[in-house]
Amino acid sequence: MNPYLVLGLSPEAGDTEIRRAYLEAIREFPPEREPEQFQAISQAYEKIRDEKSRLNYILFSRESPGSTPFEVFLKFCAASGKEKPLDFEKMKALLRSCTRN
Amino acid sequence: MGKKRDKNSGRFSELPCDQLEKQASDDMAAGRFRKARDTYKVLCKQDRQKYLPVLIEANRRLSEQLMEKGLTSEAQQVLAYLATIAPASTIAAQDLSIVLRQQDWQRAFDRALRLVTDTAAVLNERDRAEIADAFVLAFPNAQELSKLPVTEASELRSVLGAVRCLCQEQWEQAQEFLRPVPRGSLFAAWKILIKAMIAFYRGDSERARTLFLQVSPHGVPIRVSKALLLFLRTDHAPKLDEPAHEQTTRCACAFLGASTLAPFLMRAERSWQAGRFEDSYKEIRQAPDFPSEQMDLAGALSDFYFRAPFAMRGTARERYLKWFMRLADCTSFKNNVEALLTFRLLGCSELDDPYSDNVEHFWRKFLELWPENDALNGKITSLVLEQVGNHYAQREEPHPFLFEDEEEDRLRDAEGAIQLLEESIEHDPSNLSAYLKLLEVYGFEKRESDRSRLLDRMARLFPKEKAVLLQAGQDSIERKGYINGIQYLERAHLLDPLDPEVLQRLVTAYTRLARQYYERRKINKGRHSFELAHRHAICDRTDFIRGLDFLQALQAVLEMTFGEREKGLRLMAAARECTRSRAALLLFAHGNYRLYARKRHGPFWGELQENCARVATAQDRKEIYLMFQHVRSLAEKLDWSAESDLVRACLAPLGTTAFNREEALYFVPLLSLCPPLVSLAKAILWEALRRYPDDPRFRLYSVFERARVPGVDAIVELEGIYHDAMQRGDASTAELARSAINTANQLLEPPDEREDFGFPREEIEEMRRMALEMSDPEFEKFRKESGKIIPLPLFDLVMAGVRKKAPAPESEKRRRTGEGTGQLDLFS
Fold it and tell me: For chain A, how many structural domains are there in total?
């Protein structure tokens, strides 16, 4: 999965911001409690820790984020933020769209 | 016009009533409502009073089924028919369903209101859920709310208030709104959904998951719940064939702000699952926001489609890449992003191909498309060129078997590599790895002056880079500029005091300097250099370079030869005291003594012979062997036969007495590379085969030992070894066996007399004629030029037999087949 997504960062994030996000993430998912999550976070950090790693990731990474499009979608859902609810109008439209077949 | 004939009447008329009734009942139970409806219609003609209620029920269920499938207009037709046979109250709920699906919120509100106020209406769970949905989704104003019964109006007001608070992240107020809504309320499912969403957005995943799973199975709340469960890393992933799958996906996409992607995603997934990968891409490609480089869902899917081939194998990968190749050929890209990602994909795939002709072309295209005004343009260009240069700078693949006509080791395209790496440095003068690679290529190509110039420049540009200081130090030492080298290495040591590589090189530099001083009779300076080397000496393990015992032994030899003999003897005594490997130490001292004394048997020889009898453990054997190799490398021209006899005697027990599998695996490939010890390697191998007759690795070594050029028998045996290794999970042996099988198969193929390498025969003949007339430098130039048009291995194949320097075709075939296998050259 996209390392920025794993660490909850924007692609413009710099070294310091990335390091901060990484430290926060491993505090939330320590290796003894969440080994898989911890590994994913560490791997993501290694990919973008400095500018050269980031550029190498953009240019030469061959790591596929999933094995099928739907798996990618599910992983994306699981990794994507749930920080903020939709605003009222969008929520209303979304709830209404759920009646459609 | 005659009366319309009932199409079912003929089919059913001959069956007795009870049989028809049973059939209809079975159809109802199996969800075949249309069929059941048709049967009840026939039965109704015979006994209307008895069968009308079941006919109504069958129609009602059919309309529900059609609505679930999204066939709203067909459901409406069924309802229109139902209206002719059933009282209005019976179809009111179905009517509400249709209006909800048509998203006519005002009518839905009115229908729901009618149903909720009709005391005679019999409502099931689903009807109640749809009434609640109609009220909530209409988002009625105060005036409309006042039309509802008091209880429902109050509860609906609470639910709507809670939704508003949820959207404004006012969690406490939202909870307050929900508190008065009781469990048995019409809006109970909505209450649970909103509470779950509050927990979801507050990050309380466990509570959110529990609440989402409690939502009743009808209406909008369950659909939203299923979608949001996808965000909670649960196993709740809908199966592709589930009817709700598409709806859940669409709803989740809407939460992600990617509503337009959902239908394309579903179709793309189906194609992918069916193994039609290119079709899958074509489906998703139609989505308006695809491909994307953003951090959104479209971006994640773009990542997937443009990286997926690297996880594919064989023809699937080839087909997929070919599709993109065609897209690139006809430049019919959807947009710039697609073009960029396509060239990246093709460039990366070409990097995996050692004989690629297009790698540079694709990456240059990529760079053309990269935005010029991007601040990172220089760095991106530099990295890309470095990568392609690195690709050219790889060594051509070694032979999997040993052959008489071994070629010299060379790079894929040294000139191309140098050109690209220099260009890379121009674009980003801070790109250290490009410098290091270029340095390596210069070294390989023996362009010493270019190498030194570059190294000086690097040392100026990167004064605090350990890698550069190490290189500069090493370079100086190799040119016997020990003092300079030591300065570089001391700086590297300051940057990383614990790096063992730096320490090892530093000690090496000090000891070489000391040796030089002693040889020039500058004894005090030599002693001082040893003192400096001792600062980094170690005593806790055997180390031929940094071990205190070995440093003392070396100084002892130098003292005995050039300095004070007594001091030398004292130092040797001290070395003996602290050593863990006496035999290796004595061999070291003896070997070094021979460099100066030129005597076959120096002062340590007798003691060494005595100690060799004590070489008993695996560790001792390993050390004596490695020390022998080290000593021999000090002066290869000296006659080391007495020493090799001694080492063979030390290792001889390996061929007969106890040793374990690991020891045999260690020594067989090592000793087989050392001509004086090949016979011992064979003896160990036979003993190992006697002890472990089924071991695939030893069997494989025995094939290599017997068949320098494998025959059919060897292939059969290799196949057996491959399968056994696979069964035992010995992947490395299996890989070696597989590559040996491929090589053997290629070697056994009869040469194709009509081989024309895919070029017109006349052109090939012309090229050969030209090559015959050229001088060696001209031919080399011609070869390089041709390399731009055809792969060099193919060129060499064409020129085989014409030019002496060109490799023979068979060996080229072997080279190609043994590509990247890492197979060992045993028993040379």
Answer: 1
